[in-house]
Amino acid sequence: MPHQLAHHAYGKHRVRVSKIKRPRRGAASTERHELIEAAVDIELEGGFAPAYTDGDNASIVATDTCKNTVYALAKDDPFDTIESFGRTLAEHFVSTYDHITRAGVTLHQHSWARLLDCPHAFTGSDAETPTARVVAQRGAPTRVEAGVTGLMIAKTTESGFSGFHRDAFRTLPDTDDRIFATELTASWVYADQEVDFVASRSAIRKAMLARFIDHYSESVQQTLWLMGQAALDACDAATSITLTMPNKHHLLFNLAPLGRENDNEVFVSTDEPFGWITGTVTR
Ligand SMILES: O=c1[nH]c(=O)c2[nH]c(=O)[nH]c2[nH]1
């Protein structure tokens, strides 16, 4: 046979599920609710090759069934965190179906924060998104990663970029005072599953943000390295962390033709192209 199916996986993406949790039941207007919401991606690997190569669907757990599984288990599981719910889902697929060898579940949380002190009203924000990725694999421990994406951070000084490589194509001047703006994506791996996911997430987020502002940044690369170390120092349960920090350039606008000085005050923000900087820190 001239061709081989080198890799195959399938599942359902963007299954949007929300759950009202009612820790204390009471009258409708006073009962205190929690609202958790996520978009879930499911990817299954295993003995599905005949569906691709022979048109034999017998082994296929339909992507529609994958979708239904999310809602059924959202009912059965406490859905305390995206990490714990992701683990329930991933382990369900591997333990229920003999021919599924690996289930990857990725969750993006839509955060709802309580509106004033109302027991049943919330405000939402789509920017900073907590994430989780859980991989259950037959014969191996389940791997839980947690993270965040879309976390916008900026500082308006205490950042420069100088001394970088000189050659014929370099035009960027050295600077010792610039805007440092980025949209942080980070994900960290837990050593085992007996982790307080809420406390660990909070400690890592706080440590990364505190480190972002506690030094003069020589480059995005240096700050990424410092933030990664701070995250691991803040959470014994995390073994490694990957950060991605696009450089959201704010370029000094040339006001001279308009008869004005620009004393590091007026910038043009550009989306593209952007600097792309990533790194993984381990113990
Ligand atoms: O912090 C930075 N790192 C770079 O690698 C780089 N390259 C660039 O043009 N500006 C910056 N800034």
UniProtKB/TrEMBL annotation:
Annotated EC: 1.7.3.3
Binding site residues for O2: T63, N247
Biased amino acid composition, Basic residues: 1-25
UniProt keyword annotations, A-Z: Oxidoreductase, Purine metabolism
Signal peptide (residue range): none
Active site per database record: K12 (charge relay system), T63 (charge relay system), H249 (charge relay system)
Catalytic activity: urate + O2 + H2O = 5-hydroxyisourate + H2O2
Pathway(s) annotated for this protein in UniProt: Purine metabolism; urate degradation; (S)-allantoin from urate: step 1/3
InterPro entries associated with the record: Uricase
GO process annotations (BP): purine nucleobase metabolic process; urate catabolic process
Region (Disordered): 1-31
Sample GO molecular function, one term: urate oxidase activity
Highest taxon listed in the record's lineage: Bacteria
Binding sites annotated in the UniProt record for 5-hydroxyisourate: T63, D64, F161, R178, V220, Q221, N247
Job description of the protein: Catalyzes the oxidation of uric acid to 5-hydroxyisourate, which is further processed to form (S)-allantoin.
Family: Belongs to the uricase family.
Protein name: Uricase
